[in-house]
Known about the structure:
single chain; alpha/beta; Rossmann fold; Dihydrodipicolinate Reductase, domain 2; 2 domains; 5-stranded mixed beta sheet; 7 helices; binds nicotinamide-adenine-dinucleotide
Amino acid sequence: MIKVLVNGINGHMGRAMIHALHQWTETVKITAGVDLDTSTEGIPVYSDIYEVQQDFDVALDFSVPAATMRLVDYCTAHNKPIIIGTTGLNEEHLNKIAIASKQIPVFQSGNMSLGINLMQMLVKQAKMTLGDRFDVEIIETHHNRKIDAPSGTAKMLVETIISASDQQLKCVYGRKETNHRREKNEIGIHSLRGGTITGEHEVIFLGDDESISIKHRAFSKDVFANGAYQAVQFIYGKEPGLYHMDDLLAELL
Ligand SMILES: NC(=O)c1ccc[n+]([C@@H]2O[C@H](COP(=O)([O-])OP(=O)(O)OC[C@H]3O[C@@H](n4cnc5c(N)ncnc54)[C@H](O)[C@@H]3O)[C@@H](O)[C@H]2O)c1
């Protein structure tokens, strides 16, 4: 049984982890949580990681970047593997995570759904096939509580497109007051916010007289929670290093 600590346990993703747990009870147990709101019933929750009394094997993080960094410090000092799902991390945060991964196993993904990770593979294939003959635009839509924009998943899709191209591509966010024609090497990125939408991502390849859309829609946060539980099993017992969803998928195949 792998003992898990959930950072941000009272947030939407933390609750999704509790909701999806019934599918994983033979292998995973949540022994404690950390959140500013400590009201969760049935699981001991602390307002700070350094107060946690229960033992755990893997730390799982769906919180805010400052809390993620505190957990990274804790896990490095206590030699615990960490799974980071929190998005909106800046370069300084990512550098710190890369340094930590030399000492402990770190799994990081801005989107833990299997479908999104398949989408990444399809987008890569499309970009490699279409080259610079098609323009690329990305639209991402999320609920009205989301703080960061563009989404972590949109950034992952951008990275995939850039890695599949030999052009010097540049990101253009929205097109407010740009009084010139679209340049060939742009990736247009557009963020929509509203309502209760869990997460939608669409990559559109626009050519002469034809277009291709690759779209993923998540209907509930359980898709991310189930991916996170797979990541827990993946990272448990691994050597120090920085792991991503494609490492997990490669192991599943
Ligand atoms: N990787 C993925 O698959 C995936 C999927 C969904 C969401 N996310 C990301 O996960 C993060 C959380 O998403 P959410 O929808 O649950 O957000 P949320 O706002 O509902 O939850 C965040 C939780 O973190 C808690 N928190 C704030 N400060 C804290 C601190 N110092 N210590 C501990 N907990 C603290 C908040 O009280 C809240 O309960 C976001 O960055 C989101 O973009 C990632």
